[in-house]
Each structure stands twice: as C-alpha cells, then as structure tokens.
Amino acid sequence: MSNKHKLYQAFATGLGIELDSVKDELAYNSIPQWDSTAHMILIAEIENQFDVMLDTDDIIDLSSVQKAQSILGKYDVSFN
Amino acid sequence: MFFSWPTDWNNNTAVIEHDRKLTYAQLQELVEQYKEQLGNGRQLVLLVVHNNVQSVAIYLACLQSQHVVLMVDASLDAPKRAKLCDAYQPNWIVDEYGLHKQHAAQHLLDERVAVLLSTSGSTGSPKQVALSVENLQANAQGIASGLPIAQSDITITTLSMAYSYGLSVINSHLQCGASILLNEHSVMSREFWQALEQHKVSSFAGVPYSYEMLIRLGLCKKKLADLRYFTQAGGKLAKKYVQQLADFANAQNKQFFVMYGQTEATARMAINAEPEHYPESIGYAIEGGAFLLIDEQGHSISQNHIEGQLVYQGPNVMLGYAQSVVDLAHFEPASQLVTGDLAYRDEQGRYFISGRQARFIKPFGNRISLDDVEIWLQQQGVDGLATGDNDELWVGVCESSHLELTDLKNKLQQQLNLHPSKIKIFSIDAIPLTSSGKTDYPAFKQLISEVSG
C-alpha cells in the first residue's frame, strides 16, 4: 500500500468518513466530522499507520490532508 | 447573587473576548440593553450558546429580569434545534445574528424556574433539567468556597456554557468578582495555548477527555508560571492520568481538584482536594450539601466501606425535569437526588464511586442515555437493545430486523453525534431475557465478550 493510500485510509478511519471523501484539500473544521474529538483519534490513527510519535506542534498544525503529508515528511515518511 | 454584583467590582475585568475587555460595570451596561430589548413579563428565551460576551450578557439579562433561559449549545444542528423550539415554543430565539422575537403569548411558568439545561447536549433530546436561582446561587457559593478562586484570578473557558460544568465555571467566577476569558477554541488548538500565556490564565477546568488531550500535548512538561490551579469533572478520569496531573501540580506548586457532579445538582456535588493521595476519590460534599448511601431496601448505610446507591441532599438539587413547555408550569422538587452511582465511603468520610446503576454512558464527557438509544431504535423499527461500558456504546440488533448494520451505524452516529469508533453493533438471534422477562444486559455483555474474544 502506498503511503498516500495509507494516509487517506487513516483519515477515513480517524474521522469516520468514506474513503472517497478524503482528498488533499480536506481541512480541519471544514466538515462536521473533523472536530477536536475526532482530531485526537485521527492523530492516533496516523501515528499507528506510520509508526511515528508526533510532537505537540505537529499535532496542532496538522490542519489538512496536505499538511499531514508535509508534517510526516519530517518523520521520514515520503509521499512522492 | 452571582448575577448582580457590588459596585466595588465596577473596575474589575469581568469578561474578555479576543481583544475586547469588559469591566463588571461595562458588562452590566450591556446586560441593561438586553433587558430593555427582551421587555417586560416573564419570557421564555432560547439562547444559542457561544462562549462569547453576547451569550453571557443575555444569560445574565434573563436572570436579572426573571426570564427563563433555555441554553442550547451552538453545535446542535438546525433540525435538532427546530425540534426543541417545537417542544418549548420560546418567546425569543437569540443566536449569533441577534434577538428574534417569536411570539408574545405568556407561558405559564413556575415562579422558581430560571435556567433549563440539557443533560445530553449533542442528541437534542427535549428533556431538560430545570434549575432555580437558588440552585444556581447555592452551587456558585459551594464551589467558590471549595476552590481557591480569587478576585485577581483569570480563568479560561474550555467547555460550553450550555453544559452545567461549563456554566458553573462562569457562575462561580462572577460570584467572586474574577475575570473570565471567553474562549471557543479546543484545548488542542494553537489559539488556546497562546491565550493561556498571553492572558496569564490562572485556572482552567476540563472533562476527562480534555485532560487526555492536554496530557498528550505535553501539559505536564509545560512551565505555566501563572497557572495556580486546575479542576477536573464530567466523568471519571483514569487513575494514571489523575496521578500524572497531581504530580505535575506538586512539582510546579499548583493545585489540582477532582470534582464530582451532575446537571441535576446544578453541576457539582463534591470536591477532592487531595488527588495525589486519593486519586480515585470524589472527596467530600461541597459546602451546603451532604451525601448518604442507601442499600437496596432504601435504608441508610452507616458502616464504612460498604457499597450503596449514592444520594445527595443540598440546595442545589434541581426543581425537576421538563420535556416541553407545559412541564414548566409547576415543579415539585424532590428533597434529594438519587445519583444513579454506586459508592462507598472511607473512615475519614471521603466518598469513592464504585459503579453505576443508571443506564447511561459518557463518551468524551457527553452523557448518552441508553434508554433513549433503545427508544430511538424502536422508532426506526429495529428490534434491539443498547448497553455499553463507560465510553463505548454497544448495540445488539436482532437478525429478524433485516437491517444493513452499516446503515444503522451511520444513522446512529448522526443521531448521537458520536465518533464511529465508539459505536459497536452486534447481530443477535434474540434479545436475551431474565427469568422475570426483563432485558438481560449481563447476558448480552457476555455474548459480546465471546464474539470479540
């Protein structure tokens, strides 16, 4: 499974939405499902999928699917 | 009263919203304007609650003019809000766009009723807890005497004011002439952490889930020089987290209070001021209140370490429940509140919650009534049952219902506004029954544990 697919899957599970509705532009608070409660579940899901431990600033900054990719880049997860 | 204050506080800062600061005198001016707009005669006001100056001022205007205010969290979606309006026929709806007069008919309202709060904010159930000014005042005082709230304090809101614990933070700080930073950002937003430092916040409150987030975000490694104390209520926080927070408080010379309450008691009943020694205790009843334990026959238990149903007595016990505007005409308040929790006490009189008899769960601090879930299932034509552990909902659906379980889960998720990871649906042959013909929940739980391994 590509990293991109893994990430999309993590968003679908973490936010409880269909895989089809996950896209790079999807942003925090833009859909009712992505609220602060779901955000922590999403973070746990992403950490599990990629076996990383995000630090405080990254958890707070992870405000879109696009942004998640650039943050994970710092943890040596590549999306190219 | 906490909603009308002495003139020597006139120059104290009462509320802060972003860069806007209002002193107690300025807040009162705003309250006067809203009182004028709402008019004479007792009005029923549905307030769509934000943590902002307008919501605080409308709330206070209602209290000062003896109107009745129904507090509705702003996150409640439009169809659910419309249902509440149908049930309560408010004279006014106040939302972020202003005050909207609905009708001038005078409802029959018990002279004591002042505030209506939901026990399960996110489901939009019409069931409300009716509270009097005496209830609110007693609880504001009880809390203010149990916590070290000082006039020079500034607290930050982390919970909705439509939620009893959130509202009690507002009331107890107004009672003391302290300042309230009205915040709507989640504890995991940058804005929240910046506000803590920028405004030199001296206290905050949180439910178990807020603290799980705060700990995950490294709260215990922060140096928050201005923070004096913090409180936790709204459900049982896991012992390991209570200990981490108590250690953090000790190491940095702060105080940590664990509290116990219910909306039916206008928010809070007990405070544990020593969580470092007794992380699983709820402490002692707040000033003005008292606990007792009763056995299955309803007799009071006098021995220590014997489990019984926890009963609370105090001036903050609600007037009663309401399901619609008709119920607001008259209340016959009970003298005590049967909490639905099981508890025991130790030799020093501290109380410990040991279980729950009442049928509800509390995922992310939101109370969800399992009986309401079963009623909802029935309305959907589903033969099933609902139970759960503290923060997960377990639903059993009879195969004869011929249902697509994923569909049901989606609907349930919307209805309850609950994350799907907290809903588990199981297909069962039939609803297990006890010999007396009642739903056998333990048997269902047994079944689930076998299936889930």
UniProtKB/TrEMBL annotation, chain A:
The lineage of its organism: Bacteria, Pseudomonadati, Pseudomonadota, Gammaproteobacteria, Alteromonadales. InterPro entries: ACP-like_sf. This is Acyl carrier protein. It comes from Neptunicella marina.
From TrEMBL, chain B:
One of its GO terms (molecular function) is medium-chain fatty acid-CoA ligase activity. Keywords: Ligase. GO terms for biological process: fatty acid metabolic process. Pfam families: AMP-binding. It comes from the Bacteria. Residues 6-94, 105-321 form the AMP-dependent synthetase/ligase domain. The keyword Kinase does not apply. Belongs to the ATP-dependent AMP-binding enzyme family. This is AMP-binding protein.
